[in-house]
Amino acid sequence: MLYNINMNTKRQFSKEHKRKLSEAQKGRKCSEETKKKISIALKGNTNGFKKGKSSWNKSKQLSLEHKKNLSLTHQGKKLSKEHKIKIGNAHRGMKRPIGTGYKISKALTGKKLSDSHRENISKALTGRKQTEEHIRNVSRALKGRVFSKERNLKISIANKGRIFSEEHRRKLSIAQKKRTDLKGKNHPNWKGGITSENSIQRTIFRQTIQKKVFERDNYTCQLCGQKGGKLQVDHIQEWAEYVELRFNIDNCRTICMSCHYFITFGKPMPKSIETWGHNFSQVEGGQHFYS
Questions:
Q1: Is-contact 231 211, C-beta < 8 A?
Q2: Does residue 208 lie in a domain region?
Q3: Which of 19, 114, 115, 282 could pair covalently with 228 via S-S, beta carbons 3.0-4.6 A apart?
Q4: How many angstroms separate the CA atoms of 140 and 137, rounded?
Q5: How many domains are there within the chain?
Q6: Range of the domain at 204
Q7: 274 within domain boundaries
């Protein structure tokens, strides 16, 4: 038996009738045969949906009551994996109309997601590669946006202990080098140029002269003969008093942390102190790092 559905019928049902129909259909599953029959019955219908043409409800404004009812109807409803895949495929490549993104954002503002919901989102996004266009759009949307202290704290806690791959670090480094808007007064850590000239010169010294001193002395303490380990540069004529000799390599020598502590304070370094000063350590593989 084929279903004879008259789409022209404009019968108005009462709310009570609609509720009863809804309850009667709840949990009801149509067999493949029934679905096929409905599909055949709707073929050629002039009032129904036509492929390539806009649907009847496009740009139709739903009332708040209607939206609320739809929301309540879908609450607790679990979609099958197959259903989700079909929805995903249908939306792939679809462009949202202007203003939709803002409406979604506004609707989600202040909404707290459960831990299981967040975990599901995280799993769904794992390994997903975003297009260059998407990355650019996200970047534009976040430009000039200032996060609250609470949000910054949450991001900080979330990233604690997180280890980035070498490739990720390299990409971050390249991206930061290209940015010219985070220099000087434009940098979020800018405090009105309070860094002293002395601090600036020490930074320049470590970047330009310090390594040359270590290489000249073959990474060996010039007082006790220790090679490698925690090494520092000592200014023979003091840094504070002889400003003109600060960047003179002949006024510098390599010494170990313990020897530097002794000549600075006139006593051996206590065993309770694990590290002191700016150390330049030599490790296996020819790599170096400051501590």
A1: no
A2: yes
A3: 282
A4: 5
A5: 1
A6: 198-290
A7: yes
